[in-house]
Amino acid sequence: MKLLLLLLLSLSLVAEDDTNQTTQEDDSFLSTVEYGRMLYRQPRGISCSQCHGKEGKGGQIIAKYYDKKKNPKLLRGVDITSYSLEELKASLRNEYIENNHKKHHKIMPIYYLTDEEAEAIYAYLQYSLEHQ
Fold first, then answer.
1. Where in the chain are the domains?
2. What's the rounded Cα separation, in Å, for the pair 50 and 45?
3. Separation CA 58–CA 76 (nearest Å)
4. Phi and psi (nearest 5°) for 104?
5. CATH of domain 29-130
6. Is pTM, for the whole model, over 0.70?
7. Tell me: the pLDDT tens digits for 71-124?
């Protein structure tokens, strides 16, 4: 009986998802990475994964259009895995810096996320990169 209990305990420890141990808050039942994954997949609005893919690498088709010569073109989501935390926060506010001027993305929606939520998404993207 003791052997069976030890075996079950060891199997449950092995089976634990290592995202539970990544930046776990003492007073939270979700780790930062888990919270970021949840927000990335289902934020308040359009899911990040619809344009940027499951792990932020981009390539998802957002729209098909035709240029002036009637050639078909595809608009694809960009890879956001190399963004710094500040770049990600700016993008979520629909801003970016070009030639020292703030600009707005033409397609990116504005997400009204807190800094904590943006940091959680960033943690998820970094975790995904490290665990490919």
1. 29-130
2. 11
3. 7
4. -110, 145
5. 1.10.760
6. yes
7. 999 999 999 999 999 999 999 988 877 777 788 888 888 888 999 999 999 999
